[in-house]
Amino acid sequence: MTEHEQDKLQAPSPAKAADSAKAPAQKPSIDRAKASDAKDAGQSTQPGGAKKPSKAAGSKAEKPPRRALLRRLAWWLLVVAVVAVVVAAGYGFWQVNQRALAAFTLQQQSLETRLEESQRHIAQLQVANQESSAAWQQAVSKLETLVIDSAQRLNRVANRNENRWPLEEALTLTRLAQQRLQLDASALVATGLLRSADEILSTLDQAAVLPLRRQLAIDLLALESVASADVNGLYFALDALAGQIKALSWVPKPSLPKALPINDTPLTGFWHSLKQIVVIQRLDVPMQAPALMNDFERWRQHQLLLIDQSQLALLARNQDLFDVALSQTRDALAQMASQFPIEVWQQQLTAMQTAVLNPQWPDLQGSRAAIEIYLSEQTAPVVEVTQ
Asked: What is the DSSP string of 101-170?
């Protein structure tokens, strides 16, 4: 191997490479002088001589690491610049977001403040509305009281006899209704009398008469709500039934043989004829004798006696005795069901058994007392009230 090839294979030492990397760049004139010296020294050497490598060869070996370092430095600068731009953009976006969030927070606080003010205002309006409603209701009630008092005072001052006579008539009718209800226990008559009194009061045009009609309506409803019996109507219905039983005329119906079927065969017809001729009776069963005229009269008298007993129980308002008498009357009628058409009588007696003879009557004192108080106020002396 020649010395020139050994110089090519010999690499620069690490110390020199580090010194060359750390050394500052010289001026261009010095670099050109060194390059010309290296060129002259390279031309004077011979191939056979063993000499150290020249400075030109060392500079050529130092150029690749320097370029790589510069390139790496450029890349690092670029990365730092990009990161700086990204950080600056993020910071700017964060500042914008913070300003927007602060503005939104201020707006939310202002809205909450306005909402609280609106709620307080609404609460104040509601309180004021309730107070005004209570004041209006109180004023209306006072006005109604004043109107009624004024109407009564005007009626007392006017002393109209044409209005007093209908009131006296209505008072008489209410008293009669109360008496008929206590003595006769007739709800129909009492209801008719109260309705007549209400019709009389409806012809009056005074506002003070309206409470009287209201009390009459209350008593009428209470009276109509009670289930009561029409005692007179029930008595006359039993009397009509007794009259029909008295007018009955009875003749025993003969026991005729049964007619043969039309479409029977000769054998069936012979069998029916044989059954009519040959009669088989059981001796262990008591045989009921056919009814005679004396039995019918006895039945009729017993039936009339039961009807009289029902009428007496009705007039005495004895509910238990009345129900028992009606049940016995129905049973006695059922004995002659095969001889007379008694379905209508049975239905009438069944309807009578639902009658209530002793109901709990309402007190009609309210209507009479209201009319009496109104009439007493009409005749009282007028007292002028100054406000």
From this structure: HHHHHHHHHHHHHHHHHHHHHHHHHHHHHHHHHHHHHHHHHHHHHHHHHHHHHHHHHHT-HHHHHHHHHH
